[in-house]
Amino acid sequence: MRVGGFTDQHHFLTGIISELRNGLPEPPAGDWGQSPLPDSSKTKRALQTLLHPEMLGRAFQVLALAKNVDSDASPPSGFKFAREARSALGL
Fold it and tell me: Whole-angstrom Cα distance, residue 85 to residue 91?
């Protein structure tokens, strides 16, 4: 097995959310409310808790291990904003 990706929860979820936005039209200037996610204040607070670096965003880490996967294959979308995994892990 090899390291397929490593990052904190903030960067992992941000990568996934950015992929959800791909293919969607850009929101009008100043409209930060358009999102593929449910639009409720409770959902927004929950997402902020998961993403914010001082809450859970940096408290949890995500590690992906790969086996029998081409090393040239692109990493999963959650690792889009991650640093290089081997250096982040000190390998």
Answer: 9
